[in-house]
Records
---
Amino acid sequence: MATGGVSDLGDDLTLLASAHEVTDLNERLLAEQEALARANEHLNELATTDSLTGVMNRYRIEDIVQTSLANAERY
């Protein structure tokens, strides 16, 4: 019977170690997702603003005009 207890303890320790690894991986994944979101925000800013003045660039203005025209036609 003592062997069964040791085996159960080993199983419990293995499960605990696995749970800890999963928690660690989830935390690292969350940090990577947050970093990716920040990078995407920065890329969007670079793509839609003039780097010298910080105002909307031509691409962004044309996008707003097209959206506004489409909305005006619909309504």
---
Amino acid sequence: MNNADNVAKKGDSSKQIREHLLDVAEGLFCEKGFAGTSVRDITSRARCNVAAVNYHFGGKEKLYYEVFYRHMHTLRDIRIASIKRVMSQGEGEVTLEQLLHAFAMAFIELLLDKSKGRRFMKLMVREMLDPYLPKKMFVEEVGRPTLSALGEAMAKTCPGLGQKETVMSILSVIGQLIHTIYLSEIFNAEEDLGLQMPNLAEMVEHIVAFSAGGILAVAEEGNRKNDGE
């Protein structure tokens, strides 16, 4: 084996250790939160030296950030890709409902992933209750790019909708989706509630139709006001 092969092998090994530390730390942060998890907890479960956390991340706080970063980037990229994909179809005749449906499915499917998605939801709940991340981190990494992409697409599928109304409409749709996921988890965990919950596909259809109707009505009102000026 030559020197180049040795360097490559060491690089691969270092990357594997880094990813393993991220996986282990994520599980512990879900279980115990940031404050309840020590560096020794992480390295003990990962079966590596305590110095590995400082070497790869510069400390527990930056490791915590990296755990969130890799989820945030995936969330952002998948959602924006779904918007671009649907807008590239239909030769410019994409409807608002088609746009919202593509976005809603991308939003829900990732968070319902039985491993990564649900674990990220637990992390987010812990972070909301006991925050340690920089306040603007989620907004900068996920919120602003997603709002921008979806807002531009909505402007094409729904002319007449003002910027303020666009932002409120997007936040309304996202709020409905998050609440649906949360309630779905609760009702599925309780078998004796005597309630028949619609499945998620049906809920997405309802949210899309309900939201599109309201958004189009607001846009039509905006168009009438503009015509009257």
---
Amino acid sequence: MNNLLSLIDNEIENCTARLAADTIQFVNIKSVRSEPLPGAPFGEGVEKMLNTFLEVAKTDGFFCTDYDVGVVSAAMDEGEIDLGIWLHGDVVAEGDGWKFPPYDATEYKGCIIGRGATDNKGQLAAVLNLFRIFKKLGVKLNYNPAIYLGSNEENGKHDLTGVEGNPDARGFLNVHKPPKLSLVPDGGFPVGYGGKGSAIVTLRSKRPIEGYTFVAGQTASPGLAVAQFFSTEIPESVEGCTVSRGACNEISAFSPPVHGAHPDPNGNMITFLSRALLDYDLVPRGDRRMFEFLHDVSKMIYGEPLGIATEHEIMGKLTVTARSVGCEDGYLTFTISSRYPIGMTLDMIKESIDEHAAEYGFEVIDAYSYTRPYMNERDNEVVRTLCKASSDVIGKDLPPYTLSGGTYAHELPNAYVFGMSGNLPPEDFPKGRGGAHGIDEAVSLDRLKRAMRIYARALLSLNDIRW
């Protein structure tokens, strides 16, 4: 096996140009979810991403299947698939503030910069190139592995579970048999064996505001919060904010978007702008409690103002991310997401938030959970095998972990998150740039090649165990 690994490692080291080219090709497809079309249940851009991958994989001689639900696969061999490596072709919206073009990918200082580069089109390119290497070297496994590519991981995983009323989105798990074992390279090494659930809660102010508006975190500008005043005089400058004076006076605050699984304890644009409006007495006295609520919920990321703070001995603390504020007909809508551990339920979260929000003039108008908390066995032969493959390359014996982010592993049976985080932005990127879901999203080619070496060892070692 050592001689084979040496050959594989050499091929990996020599595949940098093709790895970069594949990543760039995939990143340049704007695959944000959009309106469903016949045969494209999650929109035209995502369907283009699936079709592009299939065209590439067919050219490489892999055995490809379109399941007609927004999921496709490329298997090493013909016949039943035993092991699935699950990736997603959809991405979150790019938003504002990029220095690099989000859909005209740039190779810069050993990284590929563009939306989806590290979440997770770079990983798709890495697994595809590893399959090519196995094929080139004639590597034969005792099982049939395949790459699965989905199209709705970022917005609820309905490509797996289905969309009611849409015959093109019946859900893979409702109409097809999943593989015996699934690996999801949408996290870090060594192995994720469980994950928090994800809840989205939307609140609405019980009465409207007058004379001004407040919006934040909208899809086109996820890191921007803006307050407009129709008659109120505003200061020439507001600390930490941008002021625009004219027919409609405007104050705005910006913070780089971050992944919802990792909210910033310093707060975000909602925190900064609501604090400014309070400190500069720019909202009527009767509205102050609402903005105190926006400020406290967006800054206190463990849910204390909502009465949902809790901690699991393994999964850690529940977290809250303030996502957006809208202003329709004068009423404020406030959307938050929570990553919650086993022991909490959506009903518990909704009931507590509604009770605490009432004190500040808000009420819950919608709540749903789009991933369930789950936990597999922490110590079994598969976990040990994957951990060893990771430690053999990284040189550290890292323990298995549970995730805060939502992945396909939340829905698939016998699934483990296994790497392959490539998020290592260039050293000259300031804090807040280069991350997954952030601006100037970056993936390191060296990190992807390291992940390929780990996956090579894992796939070969899985030959020797039963799963």
---
Amino acid sequence: MLHKRIIVTGSTYGIGASVTRALVEAGATVASMARSVDLGEQQALELGAAGPGTIRFHRCDVSDRAQVHDAFTRAAADMGGLDALVHVAAVEGGGRPEDETDDDWDRTFSINAHGTFIVNQEAFPHLRVRGGAILNFGAGAGIVGLASNAVYAASKGAVAAWTRSIAAAWGEHGISVNNICPAVWSPMYDEHRARLSPEQLERHDARMAEMIHI
């Protein structure tokens, strides 16, 4: 990763924060993007001082096309180009299918699915210059479904299908595109578990013990 120029979305929390730290420690030049200015600036200060890579924070709401366009344009100009996008930003919430609301659906899809659509499109003109890589963060729930969080699973299923499509379309430009479904324990997962009843949690853990995420 030495000297690679990489944008990371959702960079200040959970998996995104870990990815950002690992890339800076590997010597990459990182444009960190998230909604929290306080967390982003503090992260940039701490990781920038530790090196060996460099990091600069750009405030960005991935569901807002204008913000993403401005942030990506500034980041690419600041770094002198772009080699890769690591798109982690997402939200998790909701519940069983019969309990989900229109607001649950709209909020989750605006960030998880539409946000992926936006940031991938905005990265494309920068990556097609010399080729590069896009890594979208999906979820096992998007492949196998999730009874306790149906809308989240649906949004991540959309991410998986979109990723396959752009991988087929953009390969001719030397852009590799992948969808990772991490099996991790993160703050977002803690929040999900906290919403489950004891009975739901028992069933959830039994199912998780049998699953292997693709």
